[in-house]
Amino acid sequence: MKTPTFTTATLIFLIAHFLTVQLAAQDASEILNKLDNVVYASEDQTSKVIMVLTDGNGNERTREAEIWQKGTDKRLFRFTAPAAEAGIAFLSLPDDVMYLYMPAFGRERRIASHVKNQSFAGTDFSYEDLESTRYADKYEPVLLEETSEHYVLELTPLPDVRSDYSKVIAFVNKDHYYPEKMESYDRGRQKAKIANYTFEKKDDYWYIKEIHMQNLKRDHSTRMTFRDVVFDTGLDDGIFTVRNLTRY
Fold it and tell me: By the 8 A CB rule, do 61 and 81 touch?
């Protein structure tokens, strides 16, 4: 009589555990989708950027740029100052298509998937960091922890996604579902970067006001501050073309 009782109890426990895991997975996916809905809430967005690069000795270099974003999968980033960097541009398109334009060479270069981890123009942002894609289309989320202020998600690349990160730990604001911090781990599962985000609200949209990206391997950081942000101006698709990428 003991064996059936033990078996039944074990079965009940396993079913309960399975349902708990499934519920947690659904909750994590829901949180990540809500994050995407906040980050990509507007139809399009244009902004100017002040970028400050700081080395381990505290020396700073300042750059200026403009960013155009449309939907969830089109982004153009172009430096405008100083003169030595003006015109350097990065274009992110659907289906993992990315281009880099360096005025000194006078032509664009397609960025291969296996070099997405390279630094963009000496900053602490890689091409992968700057690409435009929904997190839910790239990562499988697991809810690690829920605090009074954050949902803590572990994001691992989906099987068909090539990424230089083995995982990303995302701290998601519980009230508004935007990311406040992301810790990125390299393929050796060592923490490589920490990105801290500041969001502000304008025209019913929460948008990134500042990103402070710390590169732990280089002892270097890049702070991007966004200004003159405007939404839903009806950006033309022609902006997000190789032809426009090289026009400066």
Answer: no
